[in-house]
Automatic annotation (TrEMBL):
Membrane topology, as annotated: Multi-pass membrane protein
Boundaries of every TonB-dependent receptor-like beta-barrel domain copy: 260-692
Full protein name: TonB-dependent receptor
Residues annotated as domain TonB-dependent receptor plug: 57-165
Signal peptide: 1-21
Family: Belongs to the TonB-dependent receptor family.
Pfam families, A to Z: Plug, TonB_dep_Rec_b-barrel
Matches recorded under SUPFAM superfamilies: Porins
Keywords attached to this entry: Cell outer membrane, Ion transport, Iron, Iron transport, Membrane, Receptor, Signal, TonB box, Transmembrane, Transmembrane beta strand, Transport
Record's subcellular location: Cell outer membrane
InterPro entries: Beta-barrel_TonB, Beta-barrel_TonB_sf, Plug_dom, TonB-dep_rcpt-like
Length: 733
């Protein structure tokens, strides 16, 4: 029987349907603004690289969410969860650590957990170069903008983008020296120090920019036998060099590092009347991300040549208890101290993953009637995963040592062409052909646990050849209103799976199949009322064949890598309105319906509650956002003219299931944030607050079976951080 954590929220269907109908209809072009405020941007002034070349947002024939540097700073968006919480249809499942995070977009993503070290449906890119999936929750540092590309991006961004892509565009050196320094301090010992400086080393020839951030915060879940869970500290830095030997040639080199050290918030006991309390004497996660990127561009008379090279590495060490003492005691009836022996209650996992990519592209120059891009790509991923574990209550299934080494190599050729069919109507056609090979070696050694084989080795290799593509139409009703329609196909290759819960018995892992998606989208974006009102809307439908699922049977701790079919459809509405020179309001509504449409017998047997018709986990039917911003001139005696800035933001995440069996339903989440400060030409000072309602809500709940003491269901849960408040200041130079 399902035991939801809360009742469903009230829908907004009438409002959404009415608003979408109005937004997609062509409207009369408003009169052009005279002397408009310089802060207001027209659609054709927002430049993005959503199709691997510079274009205006108005030209992109699919949904794209763009957040500028100013918007990121205003919202204190220092990492992926903070930057993406306002993006319709994007969710980051919270498992309590950083290195296992991944993204879900419009209901498309790994179900429960990625099956392999390269199993991703939404990848994060830095200026078009891919990061490992374990870097999905990395820090965002010194960015010019964040571009969230919705729907399959396999044509131009390659594999494992069946749901979409997040492209981070770093700030580049300018032709004058500029910089800033920012500091914050707040509750729970939140502290932050960051800065950046850049400018010309050789005028018109060589520029440099360096950026850094130090950040930390204390834990927030009380732990009775160890440090409080949730403590984290991180250090992030980037150095960028930009060579411009001629007016036609640019070469950009960058290197970055991101390191974090903390105590992860792993499963604690969830029960009626039970406080948020943990008992874990192990818990530490250390992650390190390294990246090097090279981008060489030369513009010829009719086209531009680009060579882009990247190397990214992820190192992660995770140590934690296999069972929280309270959780283990409630399930088994054993005393708490039975779980305190580390030798019989631990997980230790080491991840060493790197990715090399090389891409060569030719693309049309801006202004050409026929816009096109074509290229070749090569990639090589290597992942080494070493695990040690022993959780005595589960016996042989959770014991011993194992090692997995997987290598993925691939080559691809791709192209996309955009042609004006008639005045204002453009047709885009693109395709990509990819050849990919995966091979792995796995080893197991016992740790003396009775019933396990002394040692076991396995291996395998598979080849994949696949086509992906996209066709789209866009029509400019006016120079301020555009609508579009697209159909696209994405592909995610199969593999062998990170986990093999039967290695202890000498049974090799079973490969899982590839997944494909056909996605349909119609939408539009427009700017009205002298560019003071901006709206965007999209309807989407995703048909996913053989989506990949990690089936999880906690009765015997067995894990299986399997496939099943899913679908999702919905509507996204966003608008911002500069009501007066001082007031601006913004908001959005997202509706997403998801369904598991086919469940093989093996999957149903492996996952409790899993059946056809279930909703996909971690995706709410309804989500929304709203914000009110007030700016007013303010004379500051010591600093000259300035502005008072006040902003209140609200986010709503509706009820959603935590796992594919639909046994644990999470409550709706209401998040309130605020900022009050003054800003002037050379700096700012402000007060801030996040999650001001102070709700340590559940981000993930896993059914662990029934208690031998009470017979009631027992859930292991992960909690979000409560309220954080503080002060901040920045100087610019």
């Amino acid at each position: 029987m399902k035991r939801p954590f809360s009742h469903s929220a009230s829908p907004f269907m009438l409002l959404a349907t009415t608003a979408l109908a109005g937004m997609l209809c062509p409207l009369p072009e408003p009169a052009r603004a005279q002397g408009r405020d310089a802060q207001v941007l027209q659609l054709d002034e927002i430049t993005v690289t959503a199709r691997r070349r510079d274009e205006t947002l108005r030209e992109i024939p699919f949904a794209v969410d763009v957040q500028s540097r100013a918007q990121l700073d205003e919202k204190r968006a220092y990492d992926a969860p903070a930057a993406l919480k306002d993006v319709a249809g994007v969710y980051i499942p919270g498992f309590g650590d950083r290195s296992t995070s991944f993204l879900i977009m419009r209901g498309v993503g790994p179900i429960l957990f990625p099956l392999g070290p390269d199993d991703s449906s939404v990848l994060t890119f830095v200026d078009g170069t891919p990061l490992p999936i374990g870097s999905s929750n990395a820090n965002y540092l010194d960015l010019e903008r964040v571009e969230v590309l919705k729907g399959p991006q396999s044509t131009l961004f390659g594999r494992n983008t069946t749901g979409g892509a997040v492209n981070l565009v770093p700030a580049l050196p300018d032709d004058t020296w500029k910089g800033y320094l920012r500091s914050e301090y707040g509750t729970q010992n939140h502290r932050l120090l960051e800065g950046a400086v850049g400018g010309p080393l050789i005028k018109d020839k060589l520029g440099a920019r360096i950026a850094f951030r130090l950040r930390g915060i204390d834990g927030y879940v009380n732990n009775v036998v160890g440090p409080d869970l949730g403590r984290e500290q991180s250090a992030t830095g980037r150095l960028t060099l930009r060579f411009t030997p001629t007016d036609r040639t640019t070469w950009t080199l960058s290197g970055s590092a991101d390191s974090s050290d903390g105590v992860p918030v792993y499963y604690a006991l969830k029960g009626d009347g039970f406080p948020i309390l943990a008992a874990q004497n192990l818990g530490r996660e250390v992650t390190k991300n390294y990246a090097f990127q090279s981008k060489f561009e030369h513009s010829f008379e009719r086209f531009t040549f680009t060579s882009q090279t990247s190397y990214n590495a992820l190192r992660a060490d995770l140590t934690y208890n296999g069972a929280d003492f309270f959780l283990g005691s409630r399930i088994t009836g054993l005393p708490l101290d039975a779980f305190g022996n580390i030798a019989g209650n631990y997980f230790d996992r080491n991840i060493d993953q790197n990715r090399f990519t090389q891409e060569l592209r030719l693309s049309s120059n801006p202004g050409e009637t026929l816009q096109w891009i074509a290229g070749l790509a090569y990639y090589r991923d290597e992942a080494k995963l070493f695990s040690m574990r022993n959780v005595f209550v589960y016996g042989p299934a959770v014991s011993g040592f194992d090692n997995l080494h997987q290598t993925t190599t691939g080559q691809a050729v791709f192209s996309e062409v955009t042609y004006p069919v008639i005045d204002r109507l453009k047709l885009s056609l693109g395709g990509r052909y990819t050849r990919e090979q995966k091979k792995y070696d796995g080893e197991f050694w016992n740790d003396g646990t009775p019933g396990t084989v002394p040692a076991f080795a396995e291996g395998g290799k598979r080849d994949y050849n696949f086509w992906t593509g996209r066709a789209s139409l866009s029509y400019d009703w006016t120079d301020k209103l555009t609508s579009f329609a697209s159909v696209s196909r994405g592909y995610k290759s199969g593999g062998f799976g990170t986990f093999n819960s039967l290695m202890w018995a000498g049974v090799p892992r079973t490969p899982y199949d590839s997944s494909s998606i056909v996605a349909y989208e119609i939408g539009g974006r427009g700017s009205f009322l002298d560019d003071r009102l901006k709206v965007s809307a999209a309807l989407f439908y995703n048909d996913v064949s053989k989506e990949q699922i990690l089936a999880y049977d906690l009765q015997n701790f067995a894990q299986q890598s399997l496939n099943l079919d899913t679908k999702s459809y919905g509507v996204e509405l966003d608008a911002s309105w500069r009501v007066t020179e001082n007031w601006e309001i913004a908001g959005g509504i997202t509706y997403t319906s998801t369904e598991i449409t086919d469940v093989p017998a093996a999957a149903a047997a492996a996952q409790a509650g899993l059946k056809k018709g279930n909703q996909l986990p971690q995706v709410p039917e309804w989500a929304g956002k709203a914000s009110v911003t007030y700016r007013a001139p303010l004379g500051i005696a010591a600093f000259g003219p300035g502005n008072l800035l006040a902003r209140v933001g609200y986010n709503y995440i509706g009820p959603r299931y935590s796992e594919a069996g639909n046994l644990a339903k999470l409550k709706a989440v209401h998040l309130l944030s605020a900022r009050l400060g003054v800003e002037w030409e050379k700096g700012e000072a402000y007060l801030f607050g996040e999650n001001l309602l102070d709700k340590r809500y559940v981000t993930f709940a896993q059914p662990y079976g029934t208690s031998v003491l009470t017979g009631a269901p027992v859930y292991g849960t992960v909690y979000a951080r409560g309220a954080t408040m503080g002060v901040g200041a920045a100087i610019k130079f």
